[in-house]
Design a protein that fits this description.
Elements: E1 2-3, H1 6-12, H2 15-31, E2 34-36, E3 39-46, H3 48-54, H4 59-69, E4 86-97, E5 102-113, E6 116-117, E7 120-121, E8 124-126, E9 135-142, E10 148-153, H5 155-173, E11 180-184, H6 188-197, E12 205-209, H7 213-225, E13 230-232, H8 236-240, E14 245-248, E15 267-270, H9 278-283, E16 286-289, E17 301-305, H10 321-328, H11 335-339, E18 353-356, H12 361-378, E19 382-383
Parallel strand pairs: 1-10, 3-17, 11-12, 11-14, 12-13, 14-15, 15-18, 16-18
Antiparallel strand pairs: 1-19, 2-4, 3-4, 4-5, 5-8, 5-9, 6-7, 9-10
Helix pairs in contact: 1-12, 2-5, 2-12, 3-4, 5-6, 5-12
């Protein structure tokens, strides 16, 4: 059984391979040889005091650590998170890719909050574990004999599986010659979105906006060093005016993209769904989700809360029922159907297209299988006894 860390994962796969692996999985899903369950999130209340007690720190020392000394250095932890309720979220995702003989289970134990920053509600995923780190793992199983073959953290995969799926959508749905990008967000997903999009489009210019000026400046400086023609935008409207592709990579729970922003020939790729107005979706000529759901009874994410949870701590109740119905509708076209050649994509350069970049456990199976194979070839990671994860008793 192979045990990998994030550095092993990073060294084991390139972004180009991530895009190839995701496109292969999409084709297999479209052909009926891959599957996923819906994501399930289960919430229970917690808070700064309880979290501090769990890791053996005083509340004051714990707050200081999260804000100033967390090991998850790329996490944005704003002081406002301490002014709102927190919730523990236990999240599971599953997927099987028959072609690669792999089933994957992603298990995340996370702390969530929804602070209001600059007047807008955001989703904050907090690194509340010991040392200011996250807990989220991917387990791979061999579908031929059923045994566990690999465990790895999901941090590197989490970003790349999302942006690689977005890149496949952009590759197939953006109009010919598209190269002007309007980017919303400057977090890890935005970084990955530029990296992946450059592999499927000839990117000529990027305009980027996020509400924190310092983050924008650092983001622009970083990508200019990589040779990208990129400029700061002064607003959402400025960032997505006169562009060919809108990449929305924010953690916002507020509408950002409205119908008046959409012009003929544009392609929209959204990661969170909350930031695109319903009327904007209705204006699009072609709307695709990434994956088919297992059933039409719910959205990609089933959410549960402890019955006794106080109403103020019920953080994640959905206010986008119309969107859930759209994504759960078995008649909604998917990238799987498109890449498998079963449905058309863009048929006119003036069409407005939209890719709802939905999440799937199959993404972890697709990337996990490549990572595991490459890591073994490269001698990365640590082999530990299979016996630790096998039993003689009937399950």
């Amino acid at each position: 059984m192979l045990l990998l860390n994030n550095d092993d994962v990073r060294r084991s796969i390139s972004m180009e391979e991530c895009i190839e692996a995701i496109e292969e999985a999409l084709v297999e899903e479209g052909r009926g040889w891959a599957m996923s369950d819906n994501r399930v999130d289960r919430h229970s209340p917690t808070g700064p005091q309880e979290a501090a007690e769990s890791v053996g720190m005083t509340p004051a020392a714990y707050r200081h650590m999260l804000l100033n000394e967390r090991m998850a250095a790329d996490a944005h932890v704003e002081p406002e998170v301490f002014d709102v309720p927190w919730a523990h979220m236990f999240k599971t995702m599953y997927g099987t890719l028959h072609k690669r003989h792999v089933s994957a289970v992603r298990v995340s134990s996370e702390t969530m909050a929804m602070p209001v920053i600059d007047g807008k509600k955001r989703i904050a995923k907090l690194p509340t574990g010991p040392g200011g780190r996250y807990t989220s793992l991917v387990q791979l199983f061999d579908t031929r004999a059923g045994h566990l073959t690999c465990i790895m953290p999901d941090g590197y995969i989490q970003r790349n599986r999302v942006v690689a799926t977005g890149a496949v959508g952009t590759k197939h749905l953006a109009r010919r010659g598209a190269g002007r990008i309007g980017l919303l967000g400057t977090g890890m997903m935005a970084d990955g979105a530029i990296e992946a999009t450059r592999l499927v489009l000839d990117v000529k210019q990027v305009k980027v906006f996020s509400p924190t000026a310092q983050h924008r400046r650092e983001f622009v400086a970083r990508w200019r060093e990589e040779g990208v023609s990129i400029v700061e935008a002064s607003s959402v409207e400025d960032a997505i005016a006169d562009v060919d592709v809108i990449l929305s990579c924010t953690n916002s729970r507020s509408v950002l993209v409205r119908p008046e922003h959409l012009k003929p020939g544009m392609h929209v790729n959204t990661l969170t769904f909350f930031d695109v107005d319903r009327a904007a979706i209705d204006k699009c000529d072609r709307v695709l989700a990434s994956w088919h759901m297992v059933d039409a009874g719910g959205w990609i994410c089933h959410e549960y809360e402890l019955p006794a949870t106080h109403s103020e701590a019920k953080l994640f109740a959905s206010d986008t029922e119309w969107l859930h119905k759209l994504l759960a509708n078995p008649d909604t076209p998917t990238l799987g159907g498109l890449t498998a050649g079963k449905i058309p994509g863009r048929t006119d350069d003036r069409q407005i297209t939209c890719h709802m970049n939905t999440s799937s456990g199959l993404q972890f199976a697709a990337l996990g299988a490549r990572i595991q194979a490459n890591a073994r070839k490269m001698g990365l990671g640590r082999e530990i006894p299979d016996d630790w994860f096998l039993q003689e008793l009937h399950p």
